[in-house]
């Protein structure tokens, strides 16, 4: 499709924070975890099609987690462009009802530098709020990189 201002995410200010620690430290500090990291990965593809990097990355992180597409309750994809998210959903045959259930970056914004943390925080809080268990967050990065993480709500 054609990429326009109407189907692309805006550049926004924003912030998100993720606190990551071991179970031992969480117990020592009496912290109540929101989620557990099951697997994560990064991959690279041809920079000319960098928006498609999450396809390869999601396949790899699900393999590492020993999960299937259908076993994931929610997906949070950084939606830099509507066409990008549609391509990922179609290629991986993800149920669209499981993707960006609060809206993606076109609706919520794309705070460059904080987008990865933003989508992970959104995913974890949505899992907790809905009582669902498994989530996968993924994004493309300029230069052809893709990042993905699988988490389980605690």
TrEMBL record:
Gene3D superfamilies: 3.40.47.10. PANTHER family: ACETYL-COA ACETYLTRANSFERASE, CYTOSOLIC, ACETYL-COA C-ACYLTRANSFERASE. InterPro entries: Thiolase, Thiolase-like, Thiolase_C, Thiolase_CS, Thiolase_N. Belongs to the thiolase-like superfamily. Thiolase family. Residues 1-23 form the Thiolase N-terminal domain. It holds the Pfam family Thiolase_N. It comes from Rotaria magnacalcarata. This is Acetyl-CoA acetyltransferase. Residues 32-152 form the Thiolase C-terminal domain. SUPFAM superfamilies: Thiolase-like (SSF53901). GO terms for molecular function: acyltransferase activity, transferring groups other than amino-acyl groups. Keywords: Acyltransferase, Transferase. The keyword Transferase applies. The keyword Aminoacyl-tRNA synthetase does not apply. The lineage of its organism: Eukaryota, Metazoa, Spiralia, Gnathifera, Rotifera. Transmembrane segments: none annotated.
């Amino acid at each position: 499709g054609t990429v326009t201002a109407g189907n692309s995410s805006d550049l926004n200010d924003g912030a998100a924070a993720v606190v990551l620690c071991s179970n031992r430290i969480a117990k020592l500090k009496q912290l109540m975890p929101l989620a557990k990291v099951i697997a994560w990965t990064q991959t690279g593809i041809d920079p000319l099609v960098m928006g498609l990097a999450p396809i390869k990355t999601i396949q790899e992180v699900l393999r590492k987690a020993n999960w299937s597409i259908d076993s994931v309750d929610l997906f949070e994809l950084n939606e830099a462009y509507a066409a990008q998210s549609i391509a990922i959903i179609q290629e991986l045959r993800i149920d669209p009802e499981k993707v960006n259930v609060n809206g993606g970056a076109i609706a919520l914004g794309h705070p460059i530098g904080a987008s990865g943390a933003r989508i992970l925080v959104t995913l974890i809080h949505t899992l907790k709020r809905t009582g669902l268990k498994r989530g996968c967050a993924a994004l493309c990065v300029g230069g052809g990189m893709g990042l993905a993480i699988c988490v389980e709500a605690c």
